[in-house]
Amino acid sequence: MIRTEELTKRYKNLLALDRLNMVVEEGDIYGYIGPNGAGKTTTLKILATLLEPTSGHAYICNYRVGKDNKHIRPLIGYMPDFFGVYEDMRVDEYLTFFAAAYRIKGEKRKRIVDDVLELTDLTGKRDAMVESLSRGMQQRLGLARALVHDPKVLILDEPSSGLDPRARIEMRALLKELKKMGKTILISSHILSELQELCNKVGIIEKGTLLFSGSVDEVRRQIRRGTTIDVRVAGDNEAARLALEANPLIERAETENGVIKVSLAETAADFTFIAKYLVEQGFALELLRQEEPDLEDIFMRVTKGVVS
Fold this sequence. Notes:
about 300 residues, six-stranded mixed beta sheet, four-stranded antiparallel beta sheet, elongated
């Protein structure tokens, strides 16, 4: 559904995107994450046909951005971080205006406005002035606007930005519903815990370079070598720690809050040998657990905190 090939964007001396190669398959919710200034918004603007790349190509549903924009625009719904609204309109007028801009006419236009109001839980606000809406309601309205022409692909730049916890939960539930409806969603966000629950794939970008693209499980597997193993024994934890540290398959063993944090050496195939080793050394094992890295751990390990 979305594909980029060596996509590059340069602003004078600033390289915002450096030969980006990314694929988002049909039905994916693809989380696009990176530090501020990494190139996320630049990517999304190019995909939304609002910005020309310096070199390389981007494709939406096999149409090339720049060359086939008139075919691409009916297929995408783009929601920028700060999209702006016509505050002197009612909510239903606002959506009717954009439905008309997509040449949706008559009874069909009215039905579509009603449907997107219901989908985004804004039916009760249809007669409210846009300026009276809360930030969360305005974000929902922005998403409703992106949905009026029933696009196949949604490109969402920080849709949960500035929302309170309840509004973020509601936005997440809405995006899950859109996935069930068959939408392909590319979403950038800084709220990594939400993306972990929401997305089946992630792309991590830093300084204009895509460092990783794939499933969350894939990236976990790639960094699992550095994952910490939690160990606790009955009795003398310090003696167990020293015994573990003496094992050549263990790089480091440190005690933290009564638990031994073990880091494996590169020569260790996995951590299962620890149980047998401790029993052989005379210790009764109480806890052996591998800490599963979450998306925030992955992000911190993969990136270095630099920007373009």
